Amino acid sequence: MSESWAVPGPPGGECVVVGAGVIGLSVALALARAGLGVTVLEREPECGRGTSAAAAGMLAAGVEAAAPGAFFNLCRSSFHLWPEWSAQLQDESKVDCELELGGLLRVTTSAEGAVDLEVKRAWQLTQGIQVSELLSLEHLRREVAGLGPDVVAGLVYPNEGHVHSHRVLEALLGACIRLGVTIETSAPADGVAPEGDRPVVHVGGQQPRDLAADYLVLATGTWSPPLLQEVGVEVAMEPVRGQMLAISPGGMVLPRIVFGDHGYLLQKRSGLVLAGATEERVGFQSWTTLDGVLQVAAAARRLLPALGPARFAGSWAGLRPFARGGPLLGRSPASPRVLLATGHHRNGVLLAPITAELIARAVLEGEDPPELAPFSPGRQA
User: Fold this and answer.
1) Which CATH code of 3.30.450.20, 3.30.420.10, 3.90.550.10, 3.30.9.10 fits the domain covering 104-160+238-320?
2) Tens place of pLDDT for every residue, the chain, 381 residues?
3) Which of 12, 148, 263, 279 has its CA 20 to 30 A from that of 241?
């Protein structure tokens, strides 16, 4: 078994984690590995059936950050944790997360986009990111055959990749149970009383009660806003809908992720190609729409025209938790015993390992690690 990446700490103490998506379960696992008693509360009848289950599972630190800075550093640090983190998860749960690091093509269909890629490449090289020179369509087709004729240029990121989000959730759940984490489903957090040495969460559902703990971690994703107000957080959050498609391409093999200006394609081990994704501010409307499906399909065909005749295998949507200024990570303004791990937008899977590590350190060391300062829940709205 690979060595644990979680920061060691003294055993003892009780923690409640609200939310059983990829972030909540990752935090719960890190705390349990450190010897703390952990209870996870999940509002739905099953764990991880919301945003996390809808995710494509992309691990693409090089394309997610628009500029150097704290968010880019967070993405890069988490990306580097993934190989060992997923190996340990597999050891503990016997579930393969299907980590694939076959690389990514970031392509564009406009001259302006090519200029933007050159600018991005320049600063990323100074940060140690492995990325090719700007390549023409002819060269890019040597990486992925059949790219559409509208592609004018692109970059190759040789080390980026993806995981299977459902397998990650299954592995996290299994590892948590193995380490004695208590998981309660159909147990929504209807409110929080952050005052005192033991904050209290008001649990609703069929067995309403007040549950106190030494530490409370809110990993509530899209459903965070009502609780944020109760713990003094002023940063605005909103759901952003992402619609996706699955395509059964027959014998077609997509050796790398193809990430374009308006969509992306990646292939899972099953052979299915996932195409995504819309970015829609439509409140809590979590369903797919004809317009959304057509938009994603058009972007997919523009990237890889040969997918046009392929069999349509399904569509779905998820609500991403967008927080202005980046994720909310660390202690709440209302109490040092209430911590937040939410607002990861489209990067929850990528950022799960580093979020879990840093939140566990915050609990065990009694203060937030300096890496969390730019993402403080107490920052100005």
Assistant:
1) 3.30.9.10
2) 222 223 333 345 799 999 999 999 999 999 999 999 999 999 999 998 889 999 999 999 988 888 899 999 999 999 999 999 999 999 999 999 999 999 999 999 999 999 999 999 999 999 999 999 999 999 999 999 999 999 999 999 999 999 999 999 999 999 999 999 999 999 999 999 998 889 999 999 988 999 999 999 999 999 999 999 999 999 999 999 999 999 999 989 999 999 999 999 999 999 999 999 999 999 999 999 999 999 999 999 999 999 999 999 999 999 999 999 999 999 999 999 999 999 999 999 999 999 999 999 999 999 999 999 999 999 876
3) 148
Distances from the Cα of 212 to the Cαs of 42, 145, 162, 233, 327, in angstroms? 16, 57, 38, 21, 26
What is the DSSP-derived secondary structure letter of residue 380?
Answer: -
What value, to the nearest 5°, has the Cα angle with vertex 285 and ends 279 and 290? Answer: 70
Q: Which CATH superfamily is 14-93+165-236+324-375 part of? A: FAD/NAD(P)-binding domain (3.50.50.60)
- The domain spans of the chain are 14-93+165-236+324-375, 104-160+238-320
Whole-number Cα distances in Å, 296 to 32, 112, 161, 260, 322: 40, 22, 20, 11, 21
Under the phi-then-psi rule, with left for phi > 0, alpha for psi from -120 to 50, and beta for the rest, what region is 306? alpha
DSSP element (H, E) containing 244: strand 237-248
Which pair of structure tokens corresponds to residue 149?
Answer: 């004729």
HEC readout, 27-90: HHHHHHHCCCEEEEECCCCCCCCCHHHHCCCEECHHHHCCCCCHHHHHHHHHHHHHHHHHHHHH
